[in-house]
Fold each of these.
Amino acid sequence: MQKELQKVKIGLIGLGTVGSGVFKTLQNFDNIEISKIAVRDIKKHRNIQGLDLSLITDDPYEIVNSPDIDIVTEVIGGINPAFDLISTALKNGKHIVTANKELLAKHGKELFTLAQENNRVILYEAAIAGGIPLIMPIKTVLSGNRINKIEAILNGTTNYILTKMDLQNASYNDVLKEAQELGYAEADPTGDVEGYDAAYKITTLATIVFGKRVKLENVYREGITKIRSQDMKAANDLGYKIKLIASGKIDENGKADVRVHPMLVAKKSTLAHIDYVTNAVSLSGHPIGDITLSGPGAGEFPTASSVVGDILTLVSEIGKSDNILPMMHCKHTVDADVINISDTINKYYISISARNNIGVIGKIGTICADNHISLASIVQKCVSDDNTADITVITEPVKECDMQKAAELIKQDGNKINSLIRVQI
Ligand code: NAP
Ligand code: HSE
């Protein structure tokens, strides 16, 4: 007689872009049963083949309190009620799969502690770079490395916008709308374009890579909303592309520098060639040297690939021991000492509109020199009918606080700073 297949039971909380992709992909696995699905609006029409409407509830607590469910998959996003749902599920002995980067960045410490106390695992491959396998490789095959530098493109929406503005001269608003329609953007796209989403992701990524907890409030953040098409053109002429870069560095004394901001990256660098929704994470360390992982960073199926991968990993381990997947547990106990942005060293691109008076370039040069800023180049391109000159400056590596002070003095001298963007060193 054929033995009946023991199915692992999944509760799916959320059936939007990611949840739909997870549901559709899980249809290919007959050892997994989706026992319940929670949504916000039970009446919403859902064009999903094979969806059994009797499984749908608008009470996600039915899932986290169900004694039958082994794994809770949370793909609703946000803090409330996701935090309480995951906490309740852990206390009820469920393993968790989540794509919720905001929740991990803000409440990772409490949730991983709770998981430890309840001997349960939280997997979150989809939360950092969509479809790119990243967390599992870092915690397993790369775990013998001491990684001291991360440079990454972690937000698909902004990379899509910047690429289309650069290559197709498209307008910011049109491309943002397109990214929303394609399912890349967050429910509120401010999170993407102002750099919050990338800041959540680098907070968690830097924490696991450096083995010290990075606090979100110590991560410097700047979005892409002030980037002008003129900056993109100027960057191209100078041999650069503009990307929203999430980065982390840790020095030999354990001081970390973790941030998100637009950056001019050299056209010859790997990240300059990461276009549209693609994400990429470059890691440098010993003994590996430099490695870049890249792939689709957002969207229904790439994200579902990571979520389903986490579910299958748990399914293959559940029941084997009391302490499954020890490599995936949270190991660090200390907080990272994070340097303030004003103490960091950067190169800068500055676009200035100045009155084209005699000595204008000399004055800008003097202000920079007085503030310990050495210039790599200063170019005056054109003078408009109203006698305004467009001046583009690239500095050598200088201290952020000196640059900010010089920028203020340049403004006080009657000039307009159109843009001040850091340049990859
Ligand atoms: P979404 O399309 O807005 O879907 C959210 C889903 O959650 C919807 O089905 C919604 O129900 C449901 N929901 C919201 N509040 C709920 C509540 N209180 N109780 C029950 N269900 C609730 O969002 P998404 O793009 O799939 O993103 C989900 C998560 O994945 C977020 O954490 C996001 O940051 C993350 N993520 C997204 C992507 C991506 O490319 N989209 C990539 C990586 C990670 P209704 O359908 O009834 O409205
Ligand atoms: N809104 C996010 C992005 C989804 O555009 O990258 C993937 O995390």
Amino acid sequence: MLIHLKQVLTADELAQARALLQANDAPWIAGAASAGGQARHVKNNQQLAQNSSTAATLRALVLAAIQRDPLYLSAALPKKIFNPLFNRYSGATNAYGAHVDNAILNSRATGERVRSDISCTLFFSDPAEYDGGELHIHDPYAAQNIKLPAGDAILYPGTRVHDVRPVTRGVRLASFFWIESMVRADEQRQLLFDLDMTLLALRRRHGESDEAMHLAGTYHNLLRMWGAT
Ligand code: NI
């Protein structure tokens, strides 16, 4: 399931984040340093040093923004987030070849382990600012090329092969992170999300009813059956 989250960041937050990422002293380092296994060989971008104060400020900003988005909460049913990271694609460091993300991530900061059920990319650059740079999510039947407005984000299953196409003009700034969901299986999360969205629409159209209450019960019983806290 791919979910487009619109305007995750307010205009103020976006401006603040861009100013930090574009500052002359922003601590960019080679992205390959943080990639695991196979991904290291195809990762050719830059990443903000995780232990910098810039990264700490941006992490807090992104976490606060994403966690107030109701669509994110319904689609991801989040249990844990692996700390947001920040990358830059431009010039000679401009692409990330096809790879799979590690299933289990170890947070250096907390020592905590997070299973990467869902991947998220949050865009800080507008599509008009750069050429290329699409997040390409592989699928034999319906491959997706994702390039969203600044402030928007995409959620996609952690199971998918993906790459970032070469940026041939301008700069692409983004944050990426992983979510361990209370519901591990993508298809179960999708069913719960569809049910939740349908319930919302039903209540909007007809108000509260016995039937909506019973359907809400079914939602929660499925979540109880499939979810783990
Ligand atoms: Ni990746």
